[in-house]
Write a structure and sequence with these properties.
Elements (H helix, E strand, L loop, with lengths): L10 E2 L16 E5 L16 H15 L3 E7 L8 E5 L2 E6 L16 H12 L9 E5 H15 L3 E4 L4 H6 L10 H13 L2 E4 L2 H11 L6 E3 L16 H12 L8 E4 L8 H14 L9 E4 L12 H9 L5 E4 L4 H10 L2 E4 L8 H8 L4 E4 L4 H4 L6 E4 L4 H13 L1 H15 L4 H18 L3 H4 L3 E4 L4 E4 L10
Parallel strand pairs: 2-3, 2-6, 3-5, 6-7, 7-8, 8-9, 10-11, 10-13, 11-12, 13-14, 14-15
Antiparallel strand pairs: 1-9, 4-5, 16-17
Bound molecules: uridine-5'-diphosphate (UDP).
């Protein structure tokens, strides 16, 4: 094991450029950018997924350690209020940029200028230094982040979430590749960011290899999971599974392999359906005791064929055992995880895979493809099984392994809870705050950002004292 592999979070890929900053010095207020999807949207379909959950949870945790967060997102309806308080210290600001409805993610590059204008308008007239740092998510936000961070003279911290070059290298047959304009856009953002947050060491290496990122600017911080929400039933994993099954109307003695996520070729739910079909062909008696819930809605290139998975189930002759359910809120999702025997995540590419950790946190082991961040999210042979490649026969074998050996299932369920416990948001938010501190430190802005805030009587806003705009631009 290398020195870096052993660390969970807070890992700088390259050597720090300067003396490590004191962790007590933190920004007071961060402008977070999420152009193409709102933290208020229901995850599990369309453009809303792990990134939305990540932003909400991270922002809440940052606020609890004294860092206010304002999240800017594009308004997608005329009736949205301009500001919504998501939690104490976390504000969502809706920015008008382009038509409210009918814009696909692919249309958004043309609206980035308008969005940037909206963000700077929200800032105009405020005390200089209102925001100490910009944290952008996904390349579209990174573009706006470059502009506003430069204008405000503050650092830009960027999280890619997914990368075009990585996705394109793992495309399912016939799937649409990400366009060259995105690759170019990502390259510019990588160059401009003071710090890049990578979910795993692997993602950090991909940033270096595919985008020429500067090693000293990439920091690995594993995302967290809300361990208060995603936890086993207080009566224990077994009793909790039985209770969740009866709440959801699922049979008690069934093998329940669960799929949760946005339905698109990259997530490969088809591999699970093919695996189940193969399993039932070999062991027809299992049909009486298997239920396969698929929780989520179409997304990305999956939107072109929204009924594609239902048609595949019919084609494979397994419609009677597959339950399609639309996306659900996270509390209900926890019940689906508790009810399942195992979560199956056959993704072709996955920058981390939050659902894998959420399921384990509820006491459900995972069968996952050995790609991207999943080898970090799942401990192979301990809290689940990693499968190299996407051959349905391999997934069928792994599934049957759980069906045939209830003792192993019980053992892995307990181990899954223990493994997931190391992914709390408190650790992830503290590590992110350290990255902010390092970025401010490198710009010589630390002393200013960490000064006590005072109230701006005219606006009721807090602002750090004595901060000059653009005082320390690069
Ligand atoms: N999710 C949800 N309801 C659903 C399906 C998914 O809230 O019905 C959430 C899930 O809890 C997880 C996120 O969507 O946090 C998906 O994240 P993941 O990293 O697994 O995939 P991504 O969407 O980022 O590709």
């Amino acid at each position: 094991m290398t020195r870096l592999e052993g660390l969970h979070s807070r890992t700088l890929v390259g050597p720090p450029r300067l003396r490590p900053p004191d962790a007590r010095h933190r920004p007071r207020r961060v402008a977070m950018l999420s152009v193409h999807t709102s933290p208020l949207h229901q995850p599990g379909t369309g453009d809303a997924g792990g990134m939305n959950v990540y932003i909400v949870e991270l922002a809440k945790r940052l606020a609890t350690i004294g860092i206010e967060v304002e999240i800017f997102t594009r308004a997608t309806s005329a009736v949205l209020p301009p500001r919504v308080e998501l939690a104490p210290g976390v504000l969502v600001r809706h920015v008008d940029a382009g038509p409210y409805e009918g814009l696909a993610k692919e249309d958004l590059p043309a609206q980035l200028c308008a969005f940037g204008h909206g963000v700077t308008q929200a800032w105009a007239g405020r005390q200089p230094g209102h925001y100490d740092l910009v944290h952008s998510h996904y390349w579209l936000s990174g573009h706006v982040g470059r502009l506003v961070a430069e204008r405000w003279g503050v650092p830009l911290v960027h999280a890619m979430h997914t990368m075009a070059k990585v996705k394109n290298a793992a495309l399912a047959e016939g799937d649409t590749p990400e366009p060259a304009a995105r690759v170019l856009g990502e390259t510019h953002v990588v160059r401009a960011a003071d710090r890049l947050l990578a979910n795993t060491q692997k993602e950090a290496e991909e940033l270096l290899r595919h985008y020429g990122a500067d090693t000293g600017r990439v920091a690995v911080v594993h995302p967290g999971v809300n361990l208060e929400r995603f936890r086993p039933d207080a009566r224990g994993v077994e009793a909790g599974r039985a209770a969740a099954r009866s709440r959801l109307g699922l049979p008690q003695n069934a093998l329940i392999p669960l799929f949760v996520g946005r339905i698109q070729p990259l997530k490969a739910p088809d591999v699970l359906l093919r695996a189940v079909a193969g399993l039932l062909e070999e062991r027809p008696w299992l049909r009486e005791r298997i239920v396969v819930p698929v929780v989520g809605g179409p997304s990305g290139s999956g939107l072109a064929k929204p009924e594609g998975l239902q048609k595949l189930a019919a084609c494979l002759g397994i419609s009677d055992v597959v339950l399609f359910r639309p996306p659900v809120g996270q509390d209900q999702l926890a019940d689906w995880y508790r009810a399942a025997s195992v979560l199956v995540m056959p993704s072709r590419s996955e920058s981390f895979g939050l659902v894998a950790v959420e399921a384990q946190a509820c006491g459900t082991p995972v069968i996952a493809a050995e790609v991207g961040g999943l080898p970090v999210a799942v401990r192979d042979g301990v809290s689940g099984v990693l499968v190299p490649g996407h051959d349905p026969a391999d997934y069928a074998r792994a599934l049957y392994g759980f069906a045939a050996d209830p003792a192993r299932l019980a053992r892995m369920s307990e181990a899954a809870v223990r493994h997931a416990r190391s992914f709390g948001w408190a650790t992830a938010a503290a590590a992110t705050a350290d990255v902010y501190t390092a970025a401010l430190h490198e710009r010589g802005l630390l002393a200013v950002a960490s000064r006590p805030a005072r109230r701006d009587p005219a606006r009721g806003d807090r602002a750090p004292v004595g901060r000059g705009v653009g005082a320390a631009g690069r």
